[in-house]
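Q: Got a minute? One more chain.
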Amino acid sequence: MIRNKPLKTIDTLNQTTPESWQQQLSHAFSRVDTLCHYLNIDIASLPELQANASFPVKVPRCFADCMEPGNPNDPLLKQVLPLQQENMAVAGFVIDPVGDLAAMAEAGLIHKYQGRALLITTAACAIHCRYCFRRNFPYGNNQITPQKLQRALDYIAHHTEIEEIILSGGDPLLLSDNKLEQLLANLKQIPHIKRIRLHSRLPVVLPARITPQLIQLLAAGPQKTILVLHANHANELSTQVATACQQLKSHNITLLNQSVLLKAINDCADTLSALSEKLFECDILPYYLHQLDPAHGTAHFAISDSKALSLYHQIQSRLPGYLVPKLVREIAGAAYKTPLIR
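A: Always. Here it is, folded:
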C-alpha cells in the first residue's frame, strides 16, 4: 500500500542533501490525525483516543516509516497513541514509580545505587512513548542550569565511590554536540569515574543523530563509553538503525539494549526472540527486559508476572544465553534492579 504523503514543494524537489537530524526532529508528527494520514489508517479504526493529552504526541517520521501502512494494530504505532485509558486512576500506578525523587542527591542528580549516579541532562525526547516511566517527572524543578550542574559535579567529585555516571533524561543525545562535549569533558576530569553510560532512544527512533562528529565525541577517552539503546520490537531496527549502530560499535562503543514488556506489543515469545536476533545482527547485546514501571497513565500496557516468567522461559529455551536479556523490575528504594528469576 502506498502512503498518501504530502505533495513536495519546488524547494523540496530541488533539495539534494538529506535533512539533518535537527530538521528531521522538527518535522516529527505532533498530531494523531496527520500520523494516521501518513500511514493510510482510518482514525475511526483506532481505540478511543485522548484529546488534548497533557503528554503530547511526538513521533519522528523515520520511526513512522517502520510502521506498517494501513495497520491500526501495528506494534510500533501502539507505543505512541494517546488513549483515554491514560486518564484512569489505577491502584499502584503512581507519579514517581521508581523512587527517583527520593534518591535526588542534587537537582538533576539521582544517586540510587552503589558505585553509580544518574544525571538528568534534559527534559526533551525525540519520541513520546506512552509507557514512559518519567512521563510525570517534574523536569522543571530539575533542569540542569550551569549552577546546578556545578553542584552535581561537586557532589560526584566528593563521592569517590561513584565510578560510573549515567546520562539520561529525557534523552541525552538531544543535547547539541557542544553541550554534550562540555558535559563529557567535565566528567572526564573526575579521576574516579571509570565509565560513562548514556541511555538513549535516538539511535533507534532518529538514527540520523549518529553523526561522525557525535561518534568521535563519544569515543574519545579515557573512560569507557556504554550506550544503552531502547528497542521493544524488531521492526524498530531499520537498515538506518543497523548502520548507525555498526558505526558506533566500530569505534569501541559498547552497545546494549533494554526493552519493556508491553501488552499486545511484544508479549509474545516469537516477538521477543526475533528482537534479540535482530539486535545481535546490529551489534547490540540484549541487556534488560523490564516489567513495566507502574507510572500513572500506563496501566493498559501491563502484563502479569506469571506471563512475564512464562515468556522468559520460552525465549530462554530458544536462544543462546548471550541473547537472553535479564528479566527485571525496578522497585523504589531497592539497592539494584530486582530479577524476577530467583
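A: The first strand starts at residue 104 and ends at 106.
Q: Perfect, thanks.
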